[in-house]
Specification:
It comes from Isoptericola chiayiensis. The chain has one helix spanning about 340-345, and strands spanning about 15-25, 25-35, 40-45, 55-60, 70-80, 85-90, 110-115, 125-130, 140-150, 150-160, 170-175, 180, 185-190, 200-210, 215-220, 230-235, 245-250, 265-270, 280-285, 300-305. It has about 350 residues and is mostly beta strands.
C-alpha cells in the first residue's frame, strides 16, 4: 500500500493488542488488551498520533475470584443511546478445557458488559451489567456492536461443541445493550485453509456500514504470521439475521507483509479521520520468532491506516504500512508514560 495510506505514525499505541478506536465529539477513544490481562484501560486524544502519549486510565480491574478473575481480553468501547458501553471477555481461570472437540484446548471466557452514563467515560462511574446470555455456555469472546435501522446488533465469537474448531461468528439483535432479543445466528465458521492454520478460528469481528453495504471483518488462524483478516458483505437493506444475506470472502483480505516487517495483522476496528475518511485499526507484530507462550508476548502493537475504496465502493484493503515509530524489542510489559519518547531517543 502506498504512502497515501499513512494516517498517523505507526504504531499508534505500543503493546496493545485487539485495538478498538471510537471517534466521538472530535475525540479518539482507545482501548485494547492490556498485556497483563488484568484490567480495562482507556485513553483519549484529539489526534490518532497523540494516543500513545495520552494518559491511560484504568476504568475496571479483574475480580479476585469468579468468572471475571482472569484473562481480560479485547475490550471495545461503544456509544449507544447517550451512554458508554464496554464489551469484553473474561474467564474464571487462565487455562483451557479438554472438553473441546478440537485437538487443542480452548479457554473458558464469556462476554461481559460495563455501562457508564456520565458524559466523560474516563472519569465517570462504570457499572457492571453482567454476562451477555448468548443462549448457551461455552468459550465466547470478541463481542462488537452496531446500530442499524433503529436496531442494535451484537456480533461475537463463540465455540459450538458440535462444530470442530475453536470459534464461529454469531449475530443477534439486542433488547438493550446487555441483553439479546433474538436467538444467535451463525454467520461463519472456519472452513478455508487460511482460517485453519494452527487453530480453527473465526474471531475479532468489526462492522463498517458504508455506501449501502455492511462489511463485517473478522480474523482467522493462530495469532502468529498466519493470522489474517477476512470479510463478510451484506446489502444494508437486507435482513442481517439471515445468513443468506451475507457473502463471505474465500481469500483473506489483509495478511502479513514481510517486505515491511508486519506479521499477523488482525483483530481490527474502524474509525475515521476528521474529514470522514475510513481508517482501519489493527494489531501486528514486527517479528515471527516468539520465545515462550505467544499469549504472554506483549508486542502486538496497535496500528492504523487509511482504507480507500474503489469506484464501485469496494474496500481496497492493501497491506500493512511500515512502522514510522520505534517498537519495543523486549518482551517486558513497559509502562505507557513516556515510552514512545524513550524508544525514539534510544533509536537515535
Amino acid at each position: 500500500m502506498t504512502d497515501h495510506a499513512q494516517v498517523a505514525p505507526n504504531p499508534i499505541v505500543l503493546q496493545r493488542a485487539d485495538p478498538h478506536v471510537l471517534r466521538h465529539d472530535g475525540q479518539y477513544y482507545f482501548t485494547g488488551s492490556y498485556p497483563a490481562y488484568d484490567r480495562i484501560v482507556l485513553r483519549r486524544a484529539e489526534r490518532l498520533e497523540d494516543l500513545q502519549a495520552a494518559e491511560e486510565v484504568t476504568v475496571w480491574t479483574r475480580h479476585a475470584s469468579g468468572p471475571q478473575s482472569h484473562l481480560i481480553w479485547a475490550p471495545e468501547i461503544h456509544r449507544v443511546d447517550d451512554a458508554w458501553y464496554i464489551y469484553y471477555a473474561a474467564a474464571p481461570n487462565d487455562h483451557g478445557t479438554v472438553d473441546a472437540p478440537s485437538e487443542n484446548e480452548t479457554f473458558n471466557h464469556r462476554v461481559f458488559v460495563l455501562e457508564c452514563t456520565a458524559a466523560d467515560p474516563l472519569t465517570g462511574e462504570w457499572v457492571e451489567r453482567g454476562q451477555v446470555d448468548t443462549g448457551w455456555e461455552s468459550f465466547a469472546l470478541d463481542a462488537t456492536t452496531f446500530v442499524h435501522g433503529g436496531h442494535q446488533y451484537l456480533v461475537w465469537a463463540q465455540e459450538d461443541l458440535e462444530v470442530y474448531g475453536h470459534s464461529n461468528l454469531y449475530i443477534a439483535r439486542m433488547a438493550n445493550p446487555w441483553t439479546l432479543a433474538t436467538p444467535a445466528v451463525e454467520l461463519t465458521r472456519p472452513e478455508f485453509d487460511w482460517e485453519t492454520k494452527g487453530f480453527w478460528v473465526n474471531e475479532g469481528p468489526s462492522v463498517l456500514i458504508r455506501g449501502g453495504r455492511v462489511f463485517l471483518t473478522y480474523s482467522g488462524a493462530a495469532t502468529g504470521i498466519d493470522y489474517a483478516m477476512g470479510v463478510l458483505t451484506a446489502d444494508a437493506d437486507t435482513d442481517l439475521l439471515d445468513p443468506a444475506s451475507w457473502t463471505k470472502s474465500v481469500e483473506p483480505v489483509f495478511v502479513s507483509d514481510p517486505s515491511v516487517g508486519q506479521y499477523g495483522p488482525g483483530h481490527n476496528s474502524f474509525t475515521e479521520t476528521p474529514d470522514g475518511e475510513t481508517v482501519l485499526v489493527y494489531h501486528a507484530r514486527t517479528y515471527t520468532e516468539i520465545v515462550g507462550d505467544p499469549l504472554w508476548d506483549p508486542n502486538r502493537q496497535a496500528r492504523a491506516q487509511r482504507l480507500p475504496f474503489d469506484a464501485d465502493g469496494n474496500p481496497v484493503w492493501g497491506t500493512p504500512v511500515p512502522d514510522t515509530r520505534p517498537t519495543p524489542t523486549t518482551t517486558e510489559v513497559l509502562p505507557p508514560s513516556g515510552l514512545a519518547h524513550d524508544l525514539e531517543e534510544a533509536a537515535l
